[in-house]
Every structure is written in C-alpha cells, then in structure tokens.
Design a protein that fits this description.
By secondary structure, this protein is an alpha+beta fold. The chain contains four helices and four strands.
Amino acid sequence: MKTSREKMLRRAQRVRTRLRKLANGRPRLSVFRSSKYIYAQIIDDVAGTTLVQASSLEDVVKAEQPKTWNTEAAALVGKLLAERASEAGVKEVIFDRGGYIYHGRVKSLAEAAREGGLSF
C-alpha cells in the first residue's frame, strides 16, 4: 500500500510529464501548498533557473492578510507573483499544480495570477 505522500508525488510527476510535452519553451508556474503557507515560483526548465517567486511568508502578504493559510492570502500571492513576472518580462506560463487538486487555495492563486496579467 502506498502512502498518501507517495501517491501525491506520483500525481505531481504525471502532471509535470504532461506539461513538458505541452510547454513549447514556456516557463512553468509551480505551486507548493503546505498546511500554513503557499508558495509559487516561475521556473525556466530549459535553463534550470527560478525566474520569480512569491509566498505567503513575505511581509507584503502578511501585512494585508495575517492568516496565511486561506484563499485570500493565496490570491495575494498570485497577484504579487504576476507583478514580479511582468517586471521580469514573463507574460505566458504553463500552470503546474503539482499533485494538488485545482480547488481552494491553488485555484485562488491561479485566478489572481491571471487577473494580474499572466496568461495560461
């Protein structure tokens, strides 16, 4: 019997494999969600570097939303990431939800990033 962690890692690998086929050189917006915080980064897989990142640990997010584990904080992280991406010159990305369901905090982050100017 596989543990829930092993199952999630397998789902994440399946999602990333599919994204590599569809990416066409676009950077990947990767999301990691813990029980307290949410992290997002835009990764250039060709060069193997992180272009921009944002998380609910940052003071900018904590000042507006003291509860870092809810959908409002995730939306702030998505908006912050989109602002930083536009400054770095990134407009189009491919969304990597990892092994997480597109619901709740992950969905909130994605929608805020779209509203902020990222297209995926």
